[in-house]
Design a protein that fits this description.
Length: 101
């Protein structure tokens, strides 16, 4: 064939968060100490998650390889606090960007 395609396989299933559910992650605001950004959770898997940012400028703050400390995820009254490493960015359209960590 004249074109080659890359197939990406995952170890675990990724679970997309259906529209209408208000699940979000809280991230430290990089421009102001002590403040947190609340961003919609888009999907989750045993080894990662993805959240939405609203501009390329905001996505640049979460550059691939960067560690984000003290990420908060609240589910069913339980609070999970963890550190994450940003892995990638994908444009979603309308200026919104999906950030995978």
């Amino acid at each position: 064939p004249t074109r080659a395609f890359q197939l990406q396989r995952r170890r675990e299933a990724r679970v997309p968060i259906p529209k209408g559910y208000d699940l979000a992650v809280k991230l430290p605001a990089l421009e102001a100490r002590g403040k947190r950004l609340r961003r919609p959770l888009l999907d989750i898997s045993p080894r990662g998650f993805a959240f939405q940012v609203n501009s390329a400028e905001e996505a640049a703050r979460f550059a691939a390889g960067r560690f984000v400390r003290q990420v908060i995820l609240e589910v069913h009254g339980r609070t999970l606090v963890f550190d994450a490493q940003v892995r990638n960015h994908f444009a979603m359209g309308d200026g919104k960007i999906k950030v995978g960590a």
